[in-house]
Design brief:
This protein has 12 helices and 7 strands. The protein is α/β, with parallel strands linked by helices and 261 residues long. It has 2 domains: 106 residues, 2-Layer Sandwich (Potassium Channel Kv1.1, Chain A), CATH 3.30.710; 142 residues, no CATH class. It has a 4-stranded mixed beta sheet with strand order 1-3-2-4. Helix 2 packs across helix 3 and helix 7 runs parallel beside helix 9. The longest helix is centred in the middle third of the chain and has 17 residues. It is elongated. It starts with 14 loop residues before the first strand and ends with a strand. The N terminus is likely disordered.
């Protein structure tokens, strides 16, 4: 008996993402594919092109339309895409890219995401890009997982000027966050958990020093400012005052901190 051939899947070119092919594409055992969605991992398929013609994907039509009202309207409605079984997603900075669409495919098939980059800032960028694409495509369910993913990155990568003993820099939680992250997140709908986690990361700096990292963005982007004030209000609801010292619990690390210290 000959050797078993691996599926011919090329993530950067034309890819047919059936059940086994998708498992190979994201390098996970087939047994980890979402059991509730297994009946949807079959033909018919539709083609999605992102940006240039060099990046095309063939995806289960049932799976795509089940998870997205955006794609359901496109492929099951009276649009050209429905007759051609082909949709073109133009590149859009911070939303549509090869990276974000491949991550979206992972989510649809696996209900989990694995990014290639090891750089914390890049992983946060990829996450925000993904949730913005999911929002555009009316795909829900990943919000809490992605917010928790970003929170774990922030906790694992604090400002190096902080230590475990006496020094905690005001930007400890925001060390891996960038201005671009803040701006991109403002395009998410109000109450989105990824928006909330970025605002929560700035609570410590806001309460401890008037020159916290994103003070400029707070004024320039009212939606971020509103999110931050909401997170501050929530944090202060648990404020403890002992012998004239006001202590709050940081919403990211859970550390007890003094205001303006």
């Amino acid at each position: 008996m000959g050797k078993r051939r691996k599926p011919n899947v090329q993530p950067r070119h034309y890819a047919t993402l059936g059940c086994r092919a998708l498992a190979y594409f994201v390098k996970v055992p087939i047994t980890l594919l979402s059991p509730s969605l297994l009946p949807l991992y079959h033909d018919p398929t539709v083609k999605i092109q992102t940006g240039s013609s060099d990046h095309k994907y063939e995806v289960s039509k049932h799976l795509l339309c089940k998870g997205s009202t955006y794609f359901a309207a496109m492929f099951e409605g009276n649009f050209a895409e429905g007759t051609q079984d082909l949709a073109i997603l133009e590149d859009l900075e911070g939303v549509v890219s090869v990276r974000s669409f491949e991550a979206l495919i992972q989510w649809l098939y696996l209900r989990k995401i694995q990014f290639d980059s090891k750089e914390p800032k890049d992983r946060i960028s990829a996450t925000i890009e993904l949730v913005r694409l999911a929002d555009m495509c009316n795909i829900t369910g990943m919000e809490s997982q992605m917010a928790r993913y970003i929170k774990d990155i922030l906790v694992a990568n604090p400002d190096p000027r902080s230590d475990d003993f006496s020094v905690r820099h005001i930007d400890t939680n925001t060390y891996c966050l960038t201005r671009q992250h803040i701006i991109w997140a403002t395009f998410l709908p109000p109450g989105h958990l990824v928006r909330c986690i970025l605002a929560a990361a700035s609570v410590e700096g806001y309460l401890r020093d008037e020159n916290y990292k994103f003070v400029k963005e707070t004024h320039e982007y009212p939606t971020f400012g509103a999110d931050l004030l909401q997170e501050v209000r929530s944090t202060l609801s648990g404020l403890k005052v002992v012998q004239r010292t006001s202590t709050f619990e940081d919403p990211i690390s859970g550390t007890k901190l003094n205001i303006n210290s």
